[in-house]
Amino acid sequence: MIALHLSPLLASIFSLIVIGALVLSFVMLGSRWLMDYMLAFAVQSWLIAILSALMAWTGGYTELYFVAVLTALFRGLVLPLMLLWVLKRLHVNRELHEVVRPSTALVLGAVLVIFSMVVAYRIGHAVDIETRGVVLALTVMLSIMLIGFLMLAIRREAVSSILGILMLENGIFLGSQILVPGMPLMIELVLLFDLLVAVTCFVVLVWYLMASVGATGSQALQKLVG
Amino acid sequence: MAGSLTLWSLALLQVLVFIAGAPLLTGWIRRVRSALQNRAAPPIWQPYRELAKLFRKNVVLADEASWIFRTTPYVVLAATVSAAAALPAVATHLPTDAIADVIVLVGFLALARFFLALAAMDVGTAFGGMAASREMMVASLAEPAMLIAVFTLSMTAGSTNLSTAVGYILHSGLVLRPAFVFTLVGLLMVAIAETGRLPVDNPATHLELTMIHEGMILEYGGRHLALIEWASEIKLMIYGVLIADLFLPWGIATRLTVPSLLLGSIALVAKLAFWGGLLAMVETHFAKMRLFRVPEFLNIAFLLCLLGLLSHLILEVAL
Amino acid sequence: MILVLGYGAVVLPFAAALIALLSDLFPRTVRAGFFLLLAAGGGVSVVAGVGCLLTGGIVTGQLGLGLPGLAWHLRLDPLSGFFLAVTGIVVVAVACYGPAYVRQYQNGQQPLSALGFFTGIFVAGMQLVLLANDVFLFMLAWEIMSLSSYFLVTYQHQHAANRRAGFLYLLMAEGSALLILLAFGILAAFAHGLTFGALRAAHVPVEWATAAFVLALLGFGLKAGLVPFHVWLPEAHPVAPSHISALMSGLMLKVAVYGFIRFVYGLVVHIQWRWGLAVLILGTVSALFGVLYAIMQHDLKRLLAYHSVENIGIIFMGLGLSMIFIGTGHPVLGVLGLIAALYHTLNHALFKSLLFLGSGAILLRTHEGDLEHMGGLIRRMPQTALLFLIGCLSISALPPFNGFVSEWLTFQTALQVSVLSNTVLRAVLPVSAALLALTGALAATCFVKVYGVAFLGRSRTRRIRHAREVAWGMRVGMGLLALLCLVFGILPTLTIRLIESVPRLLLHRGLPSASVHGWLWLTPVSARVASYSAPLLVLGLVLMLALGYGLLHPRRRRAAIRRSHAWDCGFGGLTPRMQYTSTAFSMPIRRIFSPVWTLKEQTEVQMDDREPLRVAGIRYQLQISDRIWPLLYEPMARGLQLVTRRIGRIQTGRVRTYLAYSFFTLLLLLWLVR
Fold it and tell me: Which of A128, A133, B14, C27 is the most buried (most CB within 10 A)?
């Protein structure tokens, strides 16, 4: 278990990075620009990579360095570049049809964070590891996941949806890094490649969608209903 | 008795220094801004010159102006100075600190704003009404964020009294609190909105449709205008000192000896110079937002403060 | 002795009511006598209330009135004493205000005697509710209060809107009475007898206590106007004559608060924190929605009525906090919350009555209730304008007025959240406090709008231009309330020392920490945690004002201040119609919080016929309505209609069928009887 034997300064830095990742998901939620989403996602991934590296350094898990590098490479570089390529080709740069206004979405996000906090305390209590670091990690993990879900629900552009899923996944990854840092390397790798495959599929799908329907908004999918 | 007399006179002195020094901060900000924008800077005491000029000039009142219009400058200045008096600037544990806590301080600034908005509507011009409406909107949205920030700080220090809070933070030493980082950013955004600085309001513009604070005082002239300008300079300084007190209290005099008071003054000047530089930088780098982006801006401030509070609850409050 | 004064507080208004019946015979004398008696009743009730608060004693009495075997039990304790004092103050102010105000009804369509009679009965009924010590008398007095106020709401029944408002009010009032009766019924089932003492002694299982609490919250909440039960309030309060609106908004809602406090703190006693959470959430929602709806109004009295919803919300927030702290085992903080709620009750009674009386003064002189038609009244009615300003400052919770003190106390209570160990509470309390801050700031926005549009600027209509200052009696009534707003703002420590005997009675402890450092310093928890010295602040403020004015005002320069046209960025040619209106002022708020209301906005642009691109005129229509109606009440009404139609099928109208019903009933009964 982490955050038990950390110096106060290090614990603070950990917490800062973790909450910083949460703030970035709010950036995604509050912005209208697809470019912002992507940048926020990239930075979030880098933060997670830094977290992994820090974890490796303090806990002495050498394989985590490897994971950190891979995270930075795949999530922080390859995936955003792929999405950038899609954005350039699709000529969409902002979310045109807002189901919920960004400022309202931010408030909803805040409510979700409070909810996650309460749930995190419950879970922490149930499994009897109620240390602060764990509760914080659980809260942030749950919040990022829920905000990802919220993105999926309230955004119509296909690219936003992809980013929503990626963010959801980022949340899980972040949580797993902190809660079970000794997770077998194999699983981490599988997760990473899984993601890569998923995004590739998405890109292809979006591409087809563009070609056949002429739009990438999910409301356009209604046309396909027989 | 002699002791308390000394204390009270020290407190009075602190307030006087505060009031007298406020235009200097504005001058400093303008100077840094000019330097950042490659312009020739006015001298740092330019605001004093402006005030002096305004005080010499005669007042011209609009035909419709009522007594509200004429008393508002005095009320605004008095309320702002009262708020300033409650703030430990150079030294803590002065008797004035106990008169009011942070919430009262915010209340006094609200009182000043209330009267200013009324005065704006008094003459019956559309500009005044527009500016009053916008000012009140910005203030309404800034208030909850401000309160959440106050909550975090007072929960950490166990007090809304600024002196006590400063004492607690000094006592607990150099600790990096994630809660404070987020609260600081949130509070900075609130301060920018409340003092009418650039991304929210433009203090230098006279382009009617974009202004908020300037629109409210459009009809003022002479010593009335001087009083209001002075009050807004003091308000800017209040936020600077407040943020310095809460997040960087180091250097403030906790004992009333001459060296520590001197050190406190020097530290205060340094912190305010930093605050002014920061503001100037923000003002140089950001363009003014559209009015209806301001709610989003303040919403983010609220969110940051809330995240600060939640991380405080998770990380620092006993389980 | 003190109980006799309490009786006086009921009997004198009742006597006034009886006298008022004669007012068509001797209008002048009776009017004077009526208001004199009313004022005497108010004065007596202030004396009784304050006396009771000072001594902290409890006196009980029994009267052989009413039904045989059900004697009236009366009791005067600090809780009822506090509310008696509050009612008394407002009644005295209204009695000063009344004589000049009701003159306008003298030759109206309705007899003045009816107005006087029901006013007297209404006040007597409220006082009797406060003194009641058994369920029977409580409900009786409650009904007297509700029914007499129904007649006051429909006093000007020639307008269809008033009749509709009256009906809605009656419906809600009776619904509330029914719920309250059921709540009492649950407690009574476990008790021996109907006196409050017996109910308090009863051992109620926690599930049943919760059920009783829910019923009481709904019942008293309905009467107090909590969201979503507030819909009757903005309909009923504005249509009554203004001094009656002041009584209803200022006092009757407080009687509902009294009932709630009496029921929860005085009868159920074992308070759960979950109840407190429910109360807190309901209060927060009411406060926020109340002020948001208020901002959108442009009818002054309707706006004030919505503000009552807001303030009742704030009071319930204080109560909710108090209940949470009591339920989690922190009774000292519970006391603080209760004191904050009671203080706000007092304050709201004062400033809301003041504002309603002020709006009545405007209405009397201009016959105008719509803000969009007002403007520049400060020059026409300078003294009313000053008093109204004090009311606005108080309700906006600005220091050094009274509204600020109670909101500050509520904040201080909420700030003690770190003593709680429950995470839900820890997260909810700060958020609700932030929403309270939002509410306060929005209230300030709203009253800048009210004062700016109504009193400042230029007059928008001819009626306003010809307004005159009101009679001195009305100014005295308002002045009394305004003065008290200031006094209770400056001397919170002394006020709290008085209020303290209420929690001493209910929770068996006071708040000694509040005034440890003397009357100058208010320190609710301890001096380390927070302190506020209103007298010193006011002293500083006044000194600075005097200094600034003395130094800067040109006494030596003989020349008078130059007056000229407004500068207005050099545009010139201002007309009153170019001013910002109430609708324009609230537009940013409307846009930001748009999901809160049902908005119907229409803009029609008419083009000039001759020049195709020139705009000849623009017509803008805006309709704002309450979301609660389509969300809650309309489905409810539809459901009710459906059910009644179903039931209505058994009413065939044929005699034989009815006989058959009786026959079957008889068979059934004979079968059941053994």
Answer: B14
